[in-house]
Amino acid sequence: MRRSILSAVLVPLVALASPLRAEGPLHVDITQGVASPLLIAVPDILSGSIPDVAGGEDAGAALAKIVRADLVSTGLYRLVPFDGHYAIADEIAFAPFARAGAQALVLGRARPAGNNLLAYDCALYDVFGAHVEASQRIIVATAQWRRAAHKCADMVFAFTTGDPGHFDTRMLVAAQDGAIPGQRTRLVSMDYDGANPTELTQGKELVATPRFGPGSRRIVFLSYVDAAAPRLVVADLDSGSTTALKLPEGVPSAPRFSPDGATILFSLAHDGDADIYAVNLASNSVRQLTSEAGTDTSPSFAPDGSAIVFESNRSGDSQLYVMAPDGSDQRRVSFGAGGHASPVWSPRGDLIAFTQMGDGALRIGIMKPDGTRERIITSGSRDEDPSWGMSGRAIMFQRTAAGSALPKIWLTDLTGKVQQPVAVSGAASEPAWSGKRP
Amino acid sequence: MAGLSIRQRTNLADMIRSQITPCWNPPQAEDNSGHVTIVMRIRLGRDGGVLGTPALSRIGGQTAANGAYANALAGSVRRAILRCAPLRLPPELYDAWADVELNFDPRDIS
């Protein structure tokens, strides 16, 4: 009680005193900025050759090159060129980078760490304040040396955008040999930038629509060992075990994991009608979610599991619909020009990517989950099968050039201004981009 | 500071705003970023340079979900201030701009 009386007396005194003294700091509201790429420098810091790293090239230079490629591919950074290089023990002055216009500086120092390990000290500096904004000592097996650069770029991306980076990730593609008919497809897993490819299947069977579960360990794909009766197969990439799912009669397609990995959504065609189903992987119980006439396919969960987007031609042409996880409350969300297909919900939850069909072309587009703010972000003649990076800031897709029968994998930012092919040898389609690697 | 008219204070604020705005490159906000605002208190020397390190006074609108975005926004604000310094301001009014509170609010960024 005594305390409250005291403060009641003090408050008016303070209020009286303040206008007589200084008026306090000058207050300035800043509500606009310039959303432009962050100017960043990633100079080479030479480490010399390190066994089993970069094929004997200078490891520091090879790693810096990967960090630069990762950052530039997002469209969110612009590299400030820097001629020359540093040695690992050099003191690095900020002034030349500030003069060159760099706002941020990434310094990575590579050293052997014994036992076939590589240590990469990665630090992000604020050039003007001359202080460390983030730093990390990254240790990887020398055989996986490229991951050190991807982890460094992930740190920079996370600190400057607030979203997790998508660089230390894997990608699955259906790689194609030969032409139809008699074409073989192999499932190939690789780093997101195409490096370190690993064959998962031998090309004896036809495979399609690979998808990652949460993280990067489990996958699901369609296997055509018996071409007339394709099966959904779940594989564990660490153990190598595979399980063919027991499903009701019909032809399954378009599988996709739920965000918790417990369920796989898929489309099942039976008697000329295709509907969306969910199979619980623990109990193997199967539940039908849609039953409208027409083809319902390509289901994809929202990252919080609260809704499912899918493609249906129930209104005539293919359009996107959203429903609750139990199949209730189905409503159309795509109303832009042309047809809309193969929707995928962003890991951020804020957008849905899809393939737009119109004027004889296929293009990649994005929209908000309620169908507003639709934007078409690619302009190829046949761009399809979008797959999100875990940052929600980049999309991998399949592009088939006009007059060419061989699809390739491309990467785009969300504006469509920064697009590049991913270095995958041969023809590849249906990219699936993993989540975080362990 | 005493005797400065409201108009003079407004003009000073406009001068600071017009110099810092082009240097501010905020991270892209999305629906789930929320509405985060950052207040920085800076002390300026007579040459318009920033004395010491800009101090973060307040973060508004930070939630469990947007912490990483708020950090990235704070980083962009600190870079903006340091990148734009020294500020060009009328020396005769130095007492009025020696101590500045900058309220960064990304509401008008398209």
Helix/strand layout:
The complex is a heterodimer of chains A (438) and B (110).
Chain A: H1 2-17, E1 26-30, E2 38-41, E3 44-46, H2 59-72, E4 77-79, E5 85-87, H3 95-99, E6 104-112, E7 117-126, E8 131-141, H4 145-161, E9 170-177, E10 184-191, E11 198-199, E12 207-212, E13 218-223, E14 231-236, E15 242-244, E16 251-257, E17 263-270, E18 273-280, E19 286-288, E20 296-301, E21 308-312, E22 319-323, E23 331-332, E24 339-345, E25 352-358, E26 361-367, E27 375-376, E28 383-388, E29 394-399, E30 408-413, E31 419-421, E32 427-433
Parallel strand pairs in A: 2-4, 2-6, 3-5
Antiparallel strand pairs in A: 6-7, 7-8, 9-10, 9-32, 10-11, 12-13, 13-14, 14-15, 16-17, 17-18, 18-19, 20-21, 21-22, 22-23, 24-25, 25-26, 26-27, 28-29, 29-30, 30-31
Helix pairs in contact in A: 2-4
Chain B: H1 6-20, E1 37-44, E2 50-60, H2 67-84, H3 94-97, E3 99-104
